[in-house]
Amino acid sequence: MPALKYLTVLWIALLFYALSSLLVGAMGLLAYNQLNAEKEKQSANLRRLQALNEEFTGIRNALVNDKDTIYLRARELGYGDNDERFIRIAGLNGKQSDRVSAGDLSVPAVPEYIEDKTLRIISIAIAVSMSLCLGVVDLLRMVKNS
After folding, report:
1. What is the DSSP string of 74-101?
2. Cα 20 to the chain's mean position, in Å?
3. Which residues 6+ apart lie within 8 Å of 131 measured at CB?
4. Cα(85)–Cα(123) distance, rounded to whole angstroms?
5. What is the pLDDT of residues 121-146, one digit of tens each?
6. In this predicted model, what pLDDT tens digit does every residue of 39-64 receive, in sequence order?
């Protein structure tokens, strides 16, 4: 019977290791939830970039096909016809054109988890400490009985 309690210690250490790996390990639920949140963030960024792509495609098509759009864009850039003269007023910045941004850089976050090696060391420490406690209790009983 005394050996059974020492085997129980091993099962408790194994149970701790399995549960901690499932919850906070590299392939655990915590890392999975963090990766899932990151996937949603990247998907939202991808949708924004696709909307910007559609807008830029529209601008490009307008510049390719519409002479009035080309004329307006050239005026925004400071170009004009041959017979036009420009007067610049000192102190004014001029018209700020409404340019579309090219999107934001979205750097994926690395999920946080506890390494498998650390979980193994903790579970071994649990097994050793529980075995020592049981050994001390058995030793004290043996000393008391003799």
Report:
1. HHHTT---TT------TT---PPP-PPP
2. 21
3. 6, 9
4. 82
5. 999 999 999 999 999 999 999 999 88
6. 999 999 999 999 999 999 998 999 99
* Contact (Cβ atoms closer than 8 angstroms) between residue 134 and residue 9: yes
Q: What angle do CA 131, 133, 134 make, to 5 degrees?
A: 65
Q: Which of 91, 92, 67 is nearest to 81 (CA)?
A: 67
- How far does Cα 11 stand from its chain's mean position? 35
**114 in Cβ contact with 24 (< 8 Å):** yes
127: which 2 tokens? 């097994």
Amino acid, single-letter form, for residue 52: L
How many C-beta neighbours within 10 Å does residue 68 have?
8
